[in-house]
Specification:
This protein is of the alpha/beta class. It contains 20 helices and 18 strands. Strands 1, 2, 3, 4, 5 and 17 form a 6-stranded mixed beta sheet that branches. The chain has a 4-stranded mixed beta sheet with strand order 9-12-6-13.
Length: 476
């Protein structure tokens, strides 16, 4: 049946209510823990059935392997799954994720949700074959000939966390202005004009040795200016490096235009090489772990919370512990601002790689379970539930929530998250993504650790992707 079903006759009534458990596979972290707790406290199925959401919490390092094993085993354990957006093609083409077009066409509430979502999230989390965000926006987010599969469970983007006690220190600002001819960004809006050249200056300026002075205090250990993702595991390096490609006028293989989108001359373009070289140069002002290929999102978060870095770039999902005095030494002196950008065609380009995850329905559910699962989706993406999620430290992709006049006050990073959303682009969604990402991470790591140049790494990536995609008939 795809769920636990047992009929219960309501006392004194001829109406039969079903007991239905919707099992959902999800990574074990705050956004999904909140969803479970909030469902337990507030969810009532509009059908009158007794519906229970039961989330199987899986540690992040094991999440893909567990989901992949379950889907391919045929056990049909889950009715809903959280999926990274890049996994969509793999599991859709394997027949595991349910296409929702017919249900959306018949349901005005689902259509309204799609129309209320930010186009970048509809593009990245829902469409396969992928439809770019600009085209999604042109069609008002909803068009019957676009294939829809997922909805945002937790939307995410990355931006700057910075030490306001350092960037706003009068003595440090005077010294910085004398050396570089400009002032340090103190207020969040000051970061709206920050470039990567500025970021490099911040890195150089704030990198200090033990025994030197920082904001009037003698340092007991080495201190570092800046940090961002430079990790071989998972997709860490790729997530940050893609931003440099796009901001320098380059790009990645354009899956939306297969089979006419080339790889050679795009992935290893001069623009990509220049952006990658700048990325590598800026690692000189990061902690030594950067040159080992192990500086992922959690490592930079931890070093920042220990008070060892002046500014980092990390995901909104990791911000809450940073401003919690129970977990962070810099909770009271942390502010948030836009990620630096690069001047491109007269505009400060801040393009970045979309984070976060959609959730999807599986294909083996009967009609009753599908209806109840979609009602859960509508509950999660209702304005009241989304506001509660944001107030609990999560995020929303609903424009109606983002435009709420109180939204920016619900968390100190909300304004930055909101302003960053229009710049989001995504990685590939085709099944070959896993092979492409694994090889790319290897080559990026070789450049990060000094074994090859940026151009050598990108040439190797381009050659591999070109051959792989031709073998898959995705290139002419």
């Amino acid at each position: 049946m795809g769920a636990l079903l047992s009929a219960t006759i309501l006392a004194g009534s001829a109406v039969a209510a079903e007991d239905i458990t919707i099992r959902m596979a999800a990574p074990d972290w705050g956004p999904t823990r909140f969803m479970q707790d909030h469902a337990n406290e507030t969810y009532t199925a509009p059908s009158g059935n007794n519906v229970k959401l039961e989330i199987d919490f899986i540690p992040w390092p094991n999440f893909f392997d567990r989901v992949n094993a379950s889907l391919n085993s045929g056990e049909q354990k889950y009715q809903i799954l959280v999926s990274d957006s890049q996994w969509l093609g793999t599991f859709i083409e394997a027949g595991h994720f349910m296409k929702l077009n017919d249900h959306i066409a018949e349901d005005a509430e689902l259509q309204a949700i799609i129309k209320d979502l930010h186009p970048a999230l509809v593009s990245g989390y829902s469409t396969y074959p992928n439809v770019p965000a600009d085209k999604i926006a042109e069609m008002g987010n909803y068009a019957p000939d676009v294939n829809y599969y997922g909805f945002p469970q937790f939307p995410d983007n990355y931006f700057t966390y910075y030490r306001n006690d350092l960037f706003c220190d009068e003595g440090e600002n005077a010294a910085f202005k004398e050396k570089y001819g400009s002032e340090l960004p103190c207020a969040a809006e000051d970061w709206d004009s920050v470039t990567w050249d500025d970021w490099g200056n911040f890195g150089e300026f704030f990198t200090r040795k033990a025994g030197e002075t920082l904001a009037g205090q003698m340092l007991g250990s080495d201190f570092y200016g800046i940090a961002y993702q430079a990790g071989k595991p998972l997709d860490f390096s790729t997530m940050q490096i893609n931003a440099f490609f796009w901001q320098w006028g380059g790009g990645i293989w354009d899956e939306a235009n297969e089979p006419n989108a080339p790889v050679l001359g795009v992935v290893n373009s001069d623009e990509n090489v220049a952006g990658f070289e700048r990325y590598l140069e800026l690692l000189n002002y990061a902690p030594p772990i950067a040159k080992t290929g192990q500086m992922g999102i959690f490592e930079i978060q931890d070093l920042y919370m220990q008070g060892k870095i002046a500014a980092i770039i990390d995901w909104a999902a990791l911000a809450a512990p940073v401003v919690d005095p129970a977990t962070s030494q810099v909770a009271d002196v942390t502010s948030f601002g836009m990620m630096p950008g690069n001047m491109l065609n007269g505009t400060l380009d801040r393009s970045a790689n979309l984070g976060g995850q959609p959730f999807v329905l599986t294909t083996w559910n009967d009609d009753l379970v599908v209806a109840e699962a979609l009602d859960l989706v509508k509950w999660w993406l209702s304005e009241d539930t989304q506001i509660a999620a944001v107030k609990a430290g999560g995020q929303s992709g609903l424009t109606s929530v983002l435009e709420n006049p109180d939204y920016d006050s619900w968390a100190p990073w909300n304004a930055t998250y909101r302003k960053s959303l229009p710049w989001q682009k995504d990685l590939w969604h085709v099944p070959e993504m896993f092979e492409m990402l694994t090889q790319q991470q290897e080559e990026f790591d070789r450049a990060i650790t000094g074994q090859v140049s940026a151009r050598e790494a990108l040439d190797a990536v381009a050659e591999f992707q070109d051959e792989l995609l031709r073998d898959a008939d995705r290139l002419q």
